[in-house]
């Protein structure tokens, strides 16, 4: 199939059975619009210290692309499907640089760095060491989308919460106060 792009992305970390939330972040003239892509009832639990996600982008009609994310360890369960305007100057690209916030950028649909005299250097952007939230500010790249993963934190009890929820790989429990 022409114009098919795919990536297998490996996540490494101390996930300890935590729920992951995946967000789509769109840059529009330096303003970032976030959208959670997993429904509240959809629980995507990272249980191992190494997890894999598969991304696939393919044409959808004449002017759009579909980006899908699959979880191979969950019987190739599709986690989300996103439809974006097609742009011949953009590619599906892994992101290597995390930012200051709680989310970790994992994949982008973007152009690259402009090369003097014409052309685009995609690897230069990926390897620049600049997090996606700063691409507009530093390189004036606009209209890009990136996806980020955030791990849900443990919830401690307080006087307004009757539950304590400990998120763990083994020995998980929820107890009333």
Structural overview:
By secondary structure, this protein is mainly β. The chain has two helices and 14 strands. It has helices spanning 122-126, 135-139, and strands at 5-12, 18-28, 31-36, 44-46, 50-60, 64-71, 77-85, 91-94, 104-110, 113-114, 120-121, 145-151, 163-166, 173-176. Strands 2, 3, 4, 8, 9 and 12 form a six-stranded antiparallel sheet that branches. The chain is globular, with a radius of gyration of 18 Å. The protein starts with a strand and ends with a strand. The model is unreliable at 164-177 (pLDDT under 50).
Task: Write out key terms for the chains shown.
disordered C terminus, 6% helix, 4-stranded antiparallel sheet, mainly beta, globular, 177 residues, 6-stranded antiparallel sheet
Topology (elements, then pairings):
Layout lengths: L4 E8 L5 E11 L2 E6 L7 E3 L3 E11 L3 E8 L5 E9 L5 E4 L9 E7 L2 E2 L5 E2 H5 L8 H5 L5 E7 L11 E4 L6 E4 L1
Antiparallel strand pairs: 1-5, 2-3, 2-4, 2-12, 5-6, 6-7, 8-9, 9-12, 10-11, 13-14
């Amino acid at each position: 199939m022409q114009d098919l792009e795919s990536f297998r992305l490996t996540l490494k970390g101390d996930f300890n059975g935590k729920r992951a939330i995946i967000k789509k972040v769109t840059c529009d003239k330096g303003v970032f619009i976030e959208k959670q892509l997993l429904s509240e009832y959809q629980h995507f639990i990272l249980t191992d210290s190494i997890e894999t996600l598969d991304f696939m982008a393919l044409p959808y009609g004449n002017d759009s692309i579909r980006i899908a994310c699959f979880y191979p360890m969950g019987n190739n369960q599709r986690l989300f499907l996103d439809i974006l305007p097609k742009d011949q100057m953009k590619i599906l690209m892994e992101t290597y640089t995390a930012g200051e916030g709680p989310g970790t950028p994992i994949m982008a649909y973007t152009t690259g760095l402009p090369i003097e005299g014409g052309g685009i250097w995609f690897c230069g952007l990926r390897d620049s060491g600049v997090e996606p939230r700063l691409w507009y500010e530093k390189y004036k790249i606009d209209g890009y989308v990136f996806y980020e993963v955030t791990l849900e934190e443990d919830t401690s009890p307080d006087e307004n919460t009757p539950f304590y929820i400990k998120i763990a790989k083994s020995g998980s429990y929820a107890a009333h106060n």
